[in-house]
Amino acid sequence: SVSLDERFSYTINAKGSDLEVTVFADGQIYKSVTKINSVWQSDTFYFKAGAYLGANETNGSGYGQTSFYALNFNHNGTVTAPTQPTQPTPTATDDPVNAVDDTYATTNGAVLTINASQGVLANDTAADGGKVATAGTFSTAQGGSVKLNSDGSFVYTPKANYSGSDSFSYTAKDADGDSDAGTVTVKVADAAEQTTTPVTTTPVTPTAPTTSVRPATTNTLTGTSAANSLTGTSANDLINGGAGDDKIWAKNGSDVLIGGAGKDTFTFDTKPGSSNVDMIVDFNVADDTIRLNDTVFTKLKYGQLSSSSFVTGDKALDAGDRIVFNDKTGALSYDADGTGSAAAVQFAMIENLAKLTASDFIVI
């Protein structure tokens, strides 16, 4: 018999009403005779071409390499040995796209504008590169509207007088054309309601000092066990990432931030002030990171925070100190001129009094 990828050659002759096929393989000659119409009588076929012999699939992946052998036949039926092919380069692996669901929040009557760094693609993966979202303007599940851009940024407008949970779907694609669908949930709070939402998750952390008082909150955003991107509103929000590696943007307002399990990031990109001081409940120095946007923290240099810009205590000790962490109260402040005349401005509180160092901060 003749197997896939085995080297062989053959002749085909028409004699009378018989079509005779002779195959040379593994040192043997195999013949097969088939009856044909008389129009082919007394003729011999001649071929000089490449013949496809088979494919070697790798581990059931659906990808493999094909082999071609050059076969040379002549009129007298002499069998010639095939030439050895050049092995082709294996086909590169095609990696899938993974679109991860997102959650955002706003208030009714307020337009939610999300930039690309916080958009629907921020936590999606496309190993083959070229990650884009299918752009368009469309309606949401509860009658709102969204304009989605290819870089993942979007503008969401809730339906008039609507409050509750709204959603829309999007498609993420890569350079190879692979795609995956994700779902965006937008929690629309009633701006007229000012009820305080209690904290329902108790992280495994040290007890907070008695001087640490959590802000009263009006909105709640809760993540899942997956990696979530959670963006707060201009009101006071309770944002709980849950399990997974979460990205949390508190935005304006005095918010309560809970990363939960996983490697979480807390991003500060709004101007610090007395009405914009956020409480980080469970910061873990082994896993979590605080990100500071240099458009707001203008005296910080992009990248890892320099140790010379960080000081532990209740005030700056020299002109180069910019981030001041009071390890007794948990207050985290920004000082634009160090020991200069401008006062430090608090922007966060570390409730569990984690022992912060400069390595816990990234300037973006």
TrEMBL record:
Keyword rRNA-binding found: no
GO molecular function: calcium ion binding; lyase activity
Keyword check for Lyase: yes
Biased composition (Low complexity): 197-218
Key words, A-Z: Lyase
Superkingdom of the source species: Bacteria
Protein name from the UniProt record: Polysaccharide lyase family 7 protein
UniProt xrefs under InterPro entries: Alginate_lyase_2, ConA-like_dom_sf, Hemolysin-typ_Ca-bd_CS, Hemolysn_Ca-bd, Serralysin-like_metalloprot_C
Spans annotated as Disordered: 197-227
Domain Alginate lyase stretches: 2-75
Upper taxonomic lineage: Bacteria, Pseudomonadati, Pseudomonadota, Alphaproteobacteria, Hyphomicrobiales
Coiled coil start-end: none
